[in-house]
Design a protein that fits this description.
- This protein has 247 residues and is an alpha+beta fold.
- It folds into 2 domains: 105 residues, no CATH class; 135 residues, no CATH class.
- The chain is 37% helix and 22% strand.
- The protein has 6 helices and 11 strands.
- The protein has a 5-stranded mixed sheet, with helices on one face.
- A hairpin with a 5-residue loop joins β5 and β6.
- α1 runs antiparallel to α2 and α2 packs antiparallel against α3.
- The radius of gyration is 24 Å and the shape is elongated.
- It starts with a helix and ends with a strand.
C-alpha cells in the first residue's frame, strides 16, 4: 500500500466518520478502507465492530443514529438500546481520534536535523534512509546488516517520533554478527564517488556523511557503494543485505 493510497483511504474514512448515522454496511465499508493502515486503528475497528454487533441484536432496522440526545428511554428495550449505542459511541469516537492522529502523523514533518545529527559511521546509511521517510508507508522491507571484520557497530540514533513499519537495530553488531532493519520501500541514490564518504539523496533529503574511519567498504545486495553511484531500490525485494567490510 503506497502513500497516496493510504492518504485517500484516510480521507474517505474521515468522511464516513463524520456522519450522524451508521449502518452495518457502512461500517463494513469503513473497515475495508482502514484495515491494515495502522495497528491501533485495527484494534479500534475490532472493538467498535463488537459493540455494533451487540446493538444489532437488540434493535430493529439497519441504521443507527449516533445522536444519543434524541434516543427515547420510555421502555426497558429503549433504555438497553440507548446504553448499547452509548457504549458503541465510545469506540466510534476512539476510532475517529485515532484516524485523525494517524492523518496528522502522515502529514507531519519531524525534525530530520535531529536525526541526522547522530548519523555517523556505517549505520548512518540506514539512519538516513529512515530520515528520508517523508510520507508514511507501512509495507516494510528487511535489510540484514552484516559486520565483516569491523569493530563493533553501536546504534546511536533515537527517533523523535515513531514511524510504523520502521525499526532499526537496537543492539550492537559485533564482527561476524548481523542486525536487521525494517524500512519503507523507498528508492534512493547513494553516491560513494568521494573517498570515505557517502552522499545520499531522495525523498527530499540530501546529505553527506563519512564512514568514520578509512578502510570501510559497503556493499548493498552485493553492489559496492564505495566509488560508485548506486540506486537503492528497496521496493524491489522484501529482503536486502548491507555488508560492512573492514580491511
Amino acid at each position: 500500500m503506497d502513500a497516496k493510497a493510504i492518504e485517500k483511504r484516510l480521507f474517505a474514512a474521515q468522511q464516513i466518520l463524520q456522519n450522524q448515522t451508521v449502518s452495518k454496511e457502512t461500517f463494513y465499508a469503513l473497515r475495508t478502507l482502514l484495515h491494515g493502515v495502522h495497528p491501533k486503528i485495527d484494534l479500534h475497528l475490532a472493538s467498535a465492530g463488537k459493540a455494533l454487533t451487540h446493538i444489532e441484536k437488540i434493535q430493529r432496522g439497519d441504521v443507527i443514529a449516533l445522536t444519543i440526545e434524541s434516543l427515547p428511554e420510555d421502555t426497558v428495550e429503549n433504555k438497553k438500546r440507548k446504553k448499547a449505542i452509548i457504549f458503541f459511541l465510545k469506540f466510534w469516537n476512539d476510532l475517529k481520534g485515532e484516524v485523525k492522529r494517524v492523518q496528522a502523523e502522515f502529514h507531519g514533518n519531524f525534525s530530520i536535523g535531529k536525526i541526522i545529527a547522530g548519523a555517523k559511521g556505517p549505520l548512518g546509511l540506514i539512519t538516513l534512509i529512515a530520515a528520508g521517510v517523508a510520507a508514511l508507508q507501512l509495507t516494510s522491507v528487511e535489510i540484514r546488516i552484516k559486520n565483516s571484520g569491523c569493530e563493533t557497530i553501536h546504534p546511536v540514533v533515537s527517533f523523535p517520533v515513531k514511524i510504523p513499519g520502521l525499526t532499526l537495530p537496537d543492539t550492537p553488531i559485533p564482527s561476524g554478527g548481523e542486525g536487521v532493519a525494517k524500512l519503507p520501500p523507498l528508492t534512493l541514490t547513494a553516491d560513494g564517488t568521494k573517498p570515505n564518504a557517502i552522499h545520499l539523496t531522495g525523498y527530499g533529503i540530501s546529505y553527506n556523511f563519512t564512514l568514520g574511519t578509512s578502510g570501510i567498504s559497503l556493499f548493498f545486495d552485493g553492489q559496492p557503494l564505495n566509488g560508485n553511484k548506486t540506486t537503492l531500490a528497496l521496493g524491489s525485494s522484501k529482503e536486502h543485505e548491507l555488508l560492512i567490510e573492514c580491511r
